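QA checklist item 7 of 12: single-chain prediction sanity check.
[x] sequence parsed
[x] length recorded as 110
[x] structure emitted
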Amino acid sequence: MGNKEEYGDFCKLFGVTPRNRVIEFFLQMESLDFTIGDVAKETGLNRATTYNTMEILLEEGYVVPTRKVSAGQLYKLNSQKNEIKVLLEVFDLLLDRIVEEYTKKKLVHA
């Protein structure tokens, strides 16, 4: 994930930062929970950056711990937090725009 084109529309809109990369990942996987190691792997961030970013997001209440599997703690997006509700709406609007653009391109090439 080094190239800006490799990032999702959320990061393109709000900026490519470790915090936004983690938030975008959780927005994409809204109802699922993940270990910090999973988040690091999927976002392309190193573990130390991911741990620091997750600590901040936990303090802010954007992500919450869900359950423990073996020795690993899992986390998911806190969909009860008002800011997250707004971000989910924005994310859905971005997805709608992507689908609309894709549909237009398909119609033009048909």
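[x] summary fact logged: DSSP finds five helices and two strands in the chain.
[ ] second reviewer sign-off
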